[in-house]
Automatic annotation (TrEMBL):
It comes from Octadecabacter antarcticus 307. PROSITE patterns: INTEGRASE. Residues 84-260 form the Integrase catalytic domain. This is Putative IS3-family mobile element-associated protein. Gene3D superfamilies: Ribonuclease H-like superfamily/Ribonuclease H (3.30.420.10). SUPFAM superfamilies: Ribonuclease H-like.
Length: 266
């Protein structure tokens, strides 16, 4: 026919995958900061038996990629890995996250996670969170699920964790409270000290990053009540519905349930 091969092609027989495309878009409308791998986990839960490469192709064709801010800092040399607890309630991690209301008023959020299951135990927002308030929140969680063996926190940037109220609480409970190392070891003046490196408290730093990326940066809070309601809903979603890659794409609660079943059948 003397037709250039570059202009002649068989018509594509590939389906438009409209249902799959709609499912991917629906997940991302609800969870805008999810990447391709986590989207694949979510649609698989809805019954779509599809290869992750096909999900990635559609994800790219629809231009649904998540924009990431800034480059990643990479450590030089080797780093000693943090030992993972082999059961729940062995080690909790604590930290604070700050945000602002639409009128500019600042508020803080106390975050607590179980390092074994990655379960979010506490997510409390207020304009002021003293050491006494931290102790009360910990007492409330302990009354519901038992006492941890160890608690890990910063010792400089979050001075509430070194207050007299916390020191007295630690003495009364007998819990081993571990402060991560300062970046400047031989420092006398508290005002010149710097907080420890993030990887020394990596579990709570990872959680705080997800909280800020998926919730705080995506939502405007008019009042403190709005912030508390949104955080409560996000905490419930994080513990019960959001897949966690470090847990084999299980939710924290699914991970705990599977561990209980494994121990019963062992």
């Amino acid at each position: 026919m003397q037709v250039d091969r570059s202009t002649v092609r068989y018509p594509s027989r590939r389906g438009d995958d409209a249902e799959l495309r709609n499912a991917i878009k629906r997940v991302l409308r609800e969870r805008r900061r999810f990447g391709c791998r986590r989207v694949h986990v979510m649609i698989a839960r809805e019954g779509f038996a599809v290869n992750h490469k096909k999900v990635r192709r559609i994800y790219t064709e629809e231009k649904l990629q998540v924009r990431r801010g800034g480059g990643r800092k990479r450590a030089l040399g080797t780093r000693k890995p943090m030992v993972l607890p082999d059961g729940p309630n062995q080690r909790w991690s604590l930290d604070f996250v700050s945000d602002a209301l639409t009128d500019g008023r600042r508020f803080r959020i106390l975050t607590v996670v179980d390092d074994f299951s990655r379960e979010n135990l506490v997510l409390v927002a207020d304009t002021s969170l003293s050491g006494q308030r931290v102790a009360r929140e910990l007492d409330r969680v302990i009354a519901e699920r038992g006492m941890p063996k160890t608690i890990v926190s910063d010792n400089v940037l979050c001075t509430e964790f070194t207050s007299m109220a916390i020191l007295k609480w630690v003495q009364n409970t007998g819990i081993d409270w571990h402060y991560i190392a300062s970046r400047r070891p031989a420092v006398v003046c508290l005002q010149t000290m710097r907080g420890g490196k993030p990887q020394q408290n990596g579990f709570i730093e990872s959680f705080n990053g997800k909280l800020r990326d998926e919730c705080l940066n995506e939502t405007l809070f008019a009042t403190l009540g709005d912030a508390r309601k949104t955080l409560e809903e996000w905490q419930d979603d994080y513990n019960w519905r959001r897949p966690h890659s470090a847990l084999g794409n299980l939710t924290p609660m699914e991970f705990l349930e599977r561990r209980i079943i494994d121990k019963m059948t062992a």
